[in-house]
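User: Sequence recovery, please. Input:
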């Protein structure tokens, strides 16, 4: 997208124009999907990050500054959203391992060290 295209989409989004939102998705979804897929662990994560990226974009469109391209701004949102999702999954996995170890201790089963 050109700077003029970015400006038109941003102005439309700020007005709540559904056509602007569709235009945004049509021009940015594939580059965002490729960017996110580089770091995501599965398709579910890609879909969730894409969806949350567009939600954050819509909520924060008033804070967009045309200092860079719109796609660069969206990639920044996607990166932050993706890293938050990865941290959340890591915490969930750590909690699950902690619960498993607590279960072993409660049932007096010793952990086998390798």
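Assistant: Recovered sequence (114 residues):
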């Amino acid at each position: 997208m050109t700077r003029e295209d970015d400006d038109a989409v941003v102005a439309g989004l700020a007005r709540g124009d559904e056509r602007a939102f569709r235009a945004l998705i049509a021009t940015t979804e594939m580059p965002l999907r490729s960017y996110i897929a580089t770091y995501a662990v599965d398709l579910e994560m890609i879909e969730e990050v894409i969806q949350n990226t567009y939600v954050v974009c819509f909520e924060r469109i008033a804070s967009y500054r045309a200092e860079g391209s719109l796609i660069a701004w969206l990639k920044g949102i996607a990166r932050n959203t993706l890293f938050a999702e990865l941290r959340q999954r890591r915490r969930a996995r750590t909690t699950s391992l902690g619960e498993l170890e607590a279960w072993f201790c409660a049932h007096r089963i010793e952990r086998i060290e390798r």
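The CA atoms of residues 34 and 112 lie 41 Å apart.
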